[in-house]
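Thread title: Can someone regenerate the structure for this chain?

I was given the following input by a collaborator and told the matching structure tokens would be attached. They weren't. Posting the sequence so someone can regenerate them.
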Amino acid sequence: MPEEDKPSPIPDLPRGPLCEYRQRAKFSWKALKQVLEDPNVIRIKYDVWQKLEREPLFAPLTNTLPVDQQKERAAKQVKRIAELKLDPQEIYSMDYKYRVRYLMSINEALHAVCPSMSVKIALGVGLFTNALLAMGSERHSAIYNAAWNREIITCLAITEVSHGSNTKRCRTTATYDPKTQEFIINTPDFEAAKCWVGNLGKTGSMALLFAILHTSDGQNHGLQGFLVPIRDPTTLQPYPGVIVGDIGEKIGLNGIDNGFVMFNNYRIPRENMLNRAGDVTPEGTYESTFTEPGKILGAVLESFSAGRLGIMQESSNTLSHAAVIAVRYAALRKQFGPEKDGPEQSIMEYQLHQWRIFPYLAAACVLKASVFSLTDIYLATVQKSQKDSNGFELLSQIVSELHALVSSSKPLVTWTARDAIQESREACGGHGYLRAANLGELRNNHDPSCTYEGDNNVLGQQASNWLLRQWKAAKVESPVGTANFIERREAILGSSFDAIVRASGGAVESAEFITNCYEWLMCWLLHSTTEQLQHADKDGTDRFKARNDSQVYRARDLSRAYSEYYALECFRKRCLREDIAENLKPVLSNVYLIYGMWCIDRHLATFYAGGFAVGPRFADAIRSALLGACGQLKDSAVAVADAIAPPDWVLNSVIAKSDGRLYENIQNVMMTNPGAMERASWWKDIVPSKMKAKL
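Best answer:
Regenerated them for you:
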């Protein structure tokens, strides 16, 4: 049956107190859901959720397990996922883009249910095999197949105790011995121990390890990849020469057994070096094998960007979950009212509350669209690189631009999700602090997304560096089109708030106005950052210090503005497609306006510093538009939340169930939690001694 002819997998929602707000919406939440997410992705996710819901191993927990039990549960879940065969065999005969999108959609569904389990699979299967494809060759196919088929548990060992972002300064070494045709892996001290390696702490048997290669002639050939056996896969006992352990309890994601490992002159075969770009001959000579540059570039893009895109997909869902919890709770929670002894009103009716939570609801919608669009471009680029090596120069430009987009968008999405969780927790008051509300679990499990696969503050600098190169270049190289505005820099910098408002007939509530503001903002930040760097150069400041001193209020803000601009453009283009029903256009426009104005409001100081506006009119216009749009969204907010919400058992929040029976659900949780109304077993230890004597 063709996909479009299959019945919708989206179930109806139960009737209840939330219907008061649902009935106010002038559109179908199911239709909106299929605009904000691809219908095929929705189908895949619901299929996964329906299968997992029948599995006891994936039932939501009501209490926090001891750390070792969390690791055991996640490991068993990984094993069970392999047995369930969620990826149908026929997808492997489809093209790369379809196949990987399908697998990414499965991962999104898994992460929403069990983040630890999802990350273990992503690390041990997805990232490991991607890296092996990018860096290895045919001689590593047996390990690739074993990892893909879950026959061995694998991991990537890059970070060291004293080095994370600066991988070039890692100190683990691989020295070639031509006499035995082996590499000797050695860790000089604990600071050089590989650390935070997911899957390594208790279960991993094979590591893709990055180490500094030394050949027998004493030459240093930089960081290279090696396949390094860690444990016997049948007993999980470490091999002699390997010191491996678990790093201990973390803030969250304790189902992942993050580990450390040290090597004491540990030998591996010569063939274990990943030799896609370079190899060592049996005699000990290093030879570059860099051929077919287009395919190499595509492989590198796949290896390093896939993980960050996965994090963005997961984080956009986490953001959605937080926003859904906050909005549903706000609709149901009633406090105060206009009349002292009259009926109370929902806290969602208060402007302050709308201003606090609606921008995150809008962000969830906008960022879902932008992450999907960016993933589409990424998958198409990798697919093209695999088919042929022609057009190397254009492919190189696309890869550079995509890297800038990913490097700026990953911080935007993960930071927005982080802030949404905290604001939602506070907006839900004391009930939001219940473990059963799920906001605490969301926060603790999401938090590492801001630092792994690239620390956000460091990653953003790669995006600003690319933009600065385009600004300084004689010709802008932006095949994706995200930096084409630079070609109009003089006209853009010559504009102002007053000029833009006059040109648009006095209205600020438009996509054109928001786009014009962002183009001016980015041009001014590029201009001012470049100017600061030039002044530093004239003053004799070394380049390293100059670049570091240009981050705050300059390059860092540039990277953020660039990612917001891209997200808004993606959402705007999605809303212009022909499949958008007329009754959806007002709410989509409202969502766009809230997110756009909210983001601009956060850059107001920069707009004024650059002379874009003088006096209060600009700030007043932005803030008035934002508050007005929030007020307009009020009656549609619950329906928008429904459109981005997963099933109740996946959302797993007692204060945000779709039935809207807030207090009945809270009562059930409070009164049925184990030991709730039992006398404490330790009661005798706290009764005062004098009172004990009377008993």
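Residues 36 and 299 are 30 Å apart (CA to CA).
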